[in-house]
Amino acid sequence: MKKTETKAFSSLICSLLLLAFEGWAYYETFGFKVQKRAYVQPATFPRVMLIGMMIFTVVLLIQSCVKVFGTMKPEDPENAPAESLNPVKNKGVLAAFAVIGLCILFTVFFEQLGYVLISAIVCAIIMWMVGKRQPVTIILVSILVPLVLWFVFYKLLTVNIPMGVLQPLRDLVDKI
After folding, report:
1. Most confidently modeled range among 15-19, 148-152, 171-175
2. Does residue 67 contact residue 78 with C-beta atoms inside 8 Å?
3. What distance in Å separates the CA atoms of residue 75 and residue 73, rounded to the nearest whole number?
4. What is the average per-residue pLDDT within 142-166?
5. CB environment 118-152: b (16+ within 10 A), e (fewer)
6. pTM
7. What's the Rg (C-alpha) of the chain?
8. Residue 70 carries which DSSP code?
9. Whole-number Å distance between alpha carbons of 72 and 79
10. Percentage of the chain with pLDDT > 90?
11. Which of 119, 88, 85 shows the shortest CA–CA distance to 103?
12. Would you place residue 5 in the very low, low, confident or very high pLDDT band (cuts 50, 70, 90)?
């Protein structure tokens, strides 16, 4: 088997792509607004998380390089054939792409539909995808969880979350 078809080689390629993404994301944190008289800045948490991710990605890169460019024994688990990312052959990959698409739709329609409505729709679709087929459970969970979370953030933590078409609900809660 060629080394380019092994799990070690796929880990090498993934670590390089991840490092490129993490470097870009870290660079983007320099555009965050600086808050005066604040010890912890908006960019602090993302930078700490990205540095941690970079450390683990570099470890993966080093391990992959040692396996691919060194001597890898035939019985080494990293010498096994890499899984296919073809969504036609691998249903897990297809589901992952679907969830990525749902996340993109979530961000696109977040302002227009509002947090509660778009969260309920995405939650119901994901519950269906993972095998939950009881309509009552899907409806209750996908409606109640976003509503409770919105209420906690809006009333208790005073975070202003867009309501979109459900703006009358916010007005009703404000009157209470």
Report:
1. 15-19
2. yes
3. 5
4. 89
5. bbbbbbbbbbeeeeeeeeeebeebbbeebbeebee
6. 0.62
7. 22
8. S
9. 7
10. 55
11. 119
12. confident
Q: Dihedral of CA 13/105/117/173: which sign? A: positive
Residue 81, helix vs strand vs coil: strand
Q: What amino acid occupies position 26?
A: Y
**β partners of residue 6:** 81
Cβ–Cβ < 8 Å for 116, 146: yes
**What's the CA gap between 129 and 36, in Å, rounded?**
46
pLDDT in tens, 105-142: 999 999 999 999 999 999 999 999 988 989 999 999 99
Rounded to an integer, what distance in angstroms lies between the CA atom of residue 77 and that of residue 88?
A: 25
Copy the structure tokens of residue 94: 């297809």
| Locus of tokens 């679907």 | 98
